[in-house]
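Memo to structure team: turn this sequence into structure tokens by end of day. - J.P.
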Amino acid sequence: MVIEVRPASVFEDVRALVGPKSPGANVCWCLSYRIPSKLNNELRGPARGEYVAGLCRTEPPPGVLAYDGDEPVGWAAVAPRADTSFARNRKIPHVDDLPVWSLWCIRVRPGHRKQGISHALIAGAVEFARAHGAPAIEAYPLDNGDAKVDLTMAYAGIRKNFERAGFVHAADTTSVLAGHPRVLMRLDLR
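Reply from structure team:
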């Protein structure tokens, strides 16, 4: 299996990974950290997908997708931190004033897990950020040690996967997800 990571500009492929089975459902669509809370609460049902379709037509698109051949098998949300709620988040500190990018969601389709796709997504997100001029990229994964993580809450990633990709611990946070503390991991791209 050869995994290729590409910009998330094909809406149908993004929908296959983060969209609901029912078009009217109010699922995340990976918008909760991307847009202001008020807008996130106002967008309901199909409007959420329409918003994401618009993001897929922008430059840069809202993240990267991993493909096994033509099949989308993974998603990673990555964008300038200034364009996300992490710019204002009180639980996740700012290390400095660099205009860093944030990588906050990694999702691998069921049936494709445990095949290295999350590693490919992290690497692809790093290259995507670098290609768009990011001086550094941050992630806010779970510091779970060897503890099992509920798959529905594993979207933030786990610390050891980011360490394998060269990220270093930059700061502790007061954010907790699924009972695990989150840490701020950073990779300098300069």
